[in-house]
Design brief:
mainly alpha; beta-glucosidase activity; Glycosyl-hydrolase family 116 catalytic region domain-containing protein; Non-lysos_glucosylceramidase
Length: 109
């Protein structure tokens, strides 16, 4: 799930570092999400899809898992930025920005 680290993100925004999460595990999760939910889905040009299976297939258990959510994608990008993953962060954010504002015309204002 692309929002797997939402709790970690909230803690980091609150000033916590790695008291509750091991950095190695955070890095591993970010690697997996970027590879599976961002790059394997739309080649990084759409944002982060909510759900992917271990085998790299789109998760079809629910409608939500097949969707790309703007807020989740920006939250994921913010987490990547806080973890010094600038390239991945900007590529992920660029994907959802282009999808919403340039392709689909969904200007959330």
């Amino acid at each position: 799930m692309s929002d797997q680290l939402a709790g970690f993100w909230y803690l980091r925004l609150s000033g916590h570092k790695y008291e509750d999460f091991q950095k190695e595990r955070v890095d591993s999760v970010l690697d997996t999400i970027f590879k599976s939910n961002v790059m394997a889905f739309g080649n990084g040009k759409l944002g982060a899809v909510n759900g992917m299976t271990k085998s790299g297939e789109l998760e079809i258990v629910s409608m939500q898992s097949e969707e790309i959510w703007t807020g989740i994608t920006y939250g994921l990008s913010s987490t990547m930025m806080m973890e010094d993953r600038r390239k991945e962060a900007f590529l992920t954010a660029e994907g959802i920005y282009n999808t919403c504002f340039n392709e689909a015309g969904l200007a959330f204002q």
